[in-house]
Amino acid sequence: MTSTPMIELSDVQKSFGSKTVLNGVDLSIPKGQSLVIIGGSGTGKSVTLKCILGLLKPDSGVITVDGQDATKLGSRDRKALLQKFGMLFQGAALFDSLPVWQNVAFGLIQGQGMNKKDAREIATEKLRRVGLSPDVGLLSPSELSGGMQKRVGLARAIAAEPEIIFFDEPTTGLDPIMADVINDLIVECVQDLGATTLSITHDMASARKIADRIAMLYQGKIIWEGPKADIDRSGNDYVTQFISGSATGPIQMELLKN
Ligand SMILES: Nc1ncnc2c1ncn2[C@@H]1O[C@H](COP(=O)(O)OP(=O)(O)OP(=O)(O)O)[C@@H](O)[C@H]1O
C-alpha cells in the first residue's frame, strides 16, 4: 500500500451558528483506497463531503486533495480539482429533461468541452460497463427503475475516468438484492479505474462490501476507524450499537440527554 494520502482532513471544524457539526475531524485516505464513513442521521457526513468538494468552507483545519490545500483554491484551481472527482449522488440525481446518454455524457460535454459524438460513444461504453444496453441511452431517466437509475448514476460518475469518486448513500431506496448488485458494480468499476473513493452510508451491508476501511462519525469527531474486517471487534460501544442497529446503548443515552 502506498502511503501518499489522496485526501487528508486535519482537525476540520465546522459550525452553523451555535451548532457545532464537525469538531476536529481527522481522516486520511491513501491513493487507491476506499473509505466509508458511517454514522447516524445528522452527524455531519454530508457536511464533511461538502467541505472536501469546496461547497462549504470549514471554520478551521486543513483539507488536502492530491497534495493541494482544497480550502484555499481560487475558482480556476477549484474547477481543475473538481475534474478529478466523480460523484454518485443519493437518489442518482439525473436530469429528466435529458436522455440517459446525455446524463452520462454531461460532465464530458459541459465540463471538458468534448464534442457530442465522442461523448456519446464514451457514454454508451460506460452504460455497457454497468450492464445497460445502448437502447437505454435513448430513454428518459423517469422511464427507468430505481436500480437502473443507480446504474446510470454510476456510469455518469465513472464517465470521465476520475481519480476520486464520492458515493453518497449509493444504495438508498433499493431492495437488498439490487443494493448488492449495485455494490458489486461499484467495486468492479472502482477497481477498473484504480480510483480513490469516499462514501457515506447508513447501510452496513454496503459499507462492508465497498470499503477497505470504515470510519464512524459521531458528535463531530471520528470515534473509530479501521479495516472493515475489524468492525465487528472494534471494542467501541458506539460502533457496536450502530452496526447492530440496536435501540439501546450509548447512542440512545446521548439522544435522551438532548
Ligand atoms: N447549510 C447548513 N446550514 C445549517 N445547518 C446545516 C447546513 N448543512 C447541514 N446542517 C446541519 O448539520 C448537521 C449535519 O448534517 P449532515 O447533512 O451532514 O448530516 P448527515 O450525517 O449527512 O445526515 P443524513 O445521514 O441524515 O444525511 C445537521 O444538523 C444539519 O441540520
From TrEMBL:
It comes from the Bacteria. The lineage of its organism: Bacteria, Pseudomonadati, Pseudomonadota, Alphaproteobacteria, Kordiimonadales. Residues 7-243 form the ABC transporter domain. PROSITE patterns: ABC_TRANSPORTER_1 (PS00211), ABC_TRANSPORTER_2 (PS50893). CDD domains: ABC_Org_Solvent_Resistant (cd03261). The keyword Disulfide bond does not apply. One of its GO terms (molecular function) is ATP binding. Keywords: ATP-binding, Nucleotide-binding, Transport. This is ABC transporter ATP-binding protein. InterPro entries: AAA+_ATPase, ABC_transporter-like_ATP-bd, ABC_transporter-like_CS, P-loop_NTPase. Transmembrane segments: none annotated.
